[in-house]
Amino acid sequence: MPARIHPPTPTNLRRLAAALRRGELVAVPTETVYGLAAHALDPRACRAIFRAKGRPARDPLIVHVLDLAHAERLAVFNPAARRLARRFWPGPLTLVLPKQPCVPGVVTAGGATVALRAPAHPLARRLLRLAKIPLAAPSANLFGYISPTEAAHVVDGLGRRIRHVLDGGACPVGVESTILDLTNPARPRILRPGAVTAATLAKFLGRPVGQAPRQAAKGRLLAPGMLARHYSPRTPLVIRNPRGRRPHGVAGIFLRKPAGPTGRDIYWLSERGALAEIARNLYRVLRAADQGGHRQIWIEALPVAAGGLAVALHDRLRRAAASG
Fold this sequence. Notes:
Elements: E1 4-6, H1 10-21, E2 26-28, E3 35-39, H2 43-53, E4 62-64, H3 68-71, H4 79-88, E5 93-98, E6 113-117, H5 122-131, E7 135-136, H6 151-158, E8 164-166, E9 178-181, E10 189-192, H7 198-205, E11 210-211, E12 237-239, E13 250-254, E14 266-268, H8 275-290, E15 296-299, H9 309-321
Parallel strand pairs: 1-8, 2-8, 4-6, 5-9, 10-11, 12-15, 13-14, 13-15
Antiparallel strand pairs: 2-3, 3-7, 4-7, 5-6, 9-10
Helix pairs in contact: 1-5
């Protein structure tokens, strides 16, 4: 039976909260991407996430909580982590901290740290309140594929593997959360860039924030989204200027809508090239191009020198275009 898309009625929210408490999987909208949620303290439910996604057990899960008080039941917070949570939660910032004993090893890939965040999406927060449990929730897609930012994207990939999708419309941010390793608060480092930038975090903390390198193909990952290849379409993706003449069968994705006539092999991420709009549309447009029957996709490079959100967007495209 294919997954059912549930409108966000009060009755449906109560039913889905009860399903989560029973150990079932529910795809849930967040402000970043749709997550595949399960009871974070139920090892059986969390193992079902890995099976549904085809996710390797060495890749830990992010746990979603309502607030700092709930988070402190799951991790050991230092003063810097508390300050960050009070300032940036709810929102797209994930903190990696030493875990409390109650967190199952399946969630942390057997490691001693856990990744936590409080989502800002109102439906995710309502589910957390109703369910009264923390929710482990990686992106609701097959492992390594383009993340879902609409309910229909979830059904495209997991429609035969899960039963429930909560429809919250399009995700307003569109790329995954920033992940910050704070296990050593004197040396904070970003494990995955996102909408909360390194510059913002460094200014708030009053100290430099480093960038962790990509991880090798083997061994436990420190956090999600650290593999060299990830977020990838099935059609080969090349970061290359799509202007001018492209070979037959090659689609072009532009940062802003091109002037003049466009064809079926032309896509764009923003009317005027605004970074927030590019982020919001990136995965939707990548999916559309991937399903367009092209033999290759060329996508215009992002201005990394612009900093801010451009760093996160460039990270996603670099991983999506990586070979392997």
